[in-house]
Amino acid sequence: MTTERDPGPRLSARLTYLLKRALVDLEDLHAEHLAPVGVSGRELAVLLLLDGINPESQQQVAGRLRVDRTTMVALLDGLEAKGLVARHADAGDRRRNVVELTGDGRAALTRAVSASDEAERQFLAELDDAESAQLRTLLTRLTQDRSKP
């Protein structure tokens, strides 16, 4: 007997469907765990990218995260309004604006990574440590940049 939530065997066997369901479930867990920190999963990605690198331009950050310019501006506007990032002119090239984490941004990042780790632990609870590591390895192989030799 099928229910309203049961997509049926043909759809539930499709990789696209399985990956999308996994993503939605993981995003929901992240939203729940990151809410007390005051950042979203997308904002966490920006903070992680900016941590420990030389200041980069908005355009470089957008390229590395593979998001369009408009989306990047909105993300950085939100993070800047929260006091987590700062944008300023590059000392070496005044035409270029760079983005850096603030002290509050570093503190929020520490809390957000801890929250994200807990969301991932909950998501992967049905797998043992070896299976979790294997899943990460396989997904890394599937998502590696194929444009490089």
From TrEMBL:
Residues 12-144 form the HTH marR-type domain. Coiled coil: none annotated. The keyword Transcription regulation applies. GO terms for molecular function: DNA binding; DNA-binding transcription factor activity. It comes from the Bacteria. The keyword Transcription applies. Keywords: DNA-binding, Transcription, Transcription regulation. PANTHER family: TRANSCRIPTIONAL REGULATOR, MARR (PTHR42756), TRANSCRIPTIONAL REPRESSOR OF EMRAB OPERON (PTHR42756:SF1). This is MarR family transcriptional regulator. It comes from Lentzea guizhouensis.
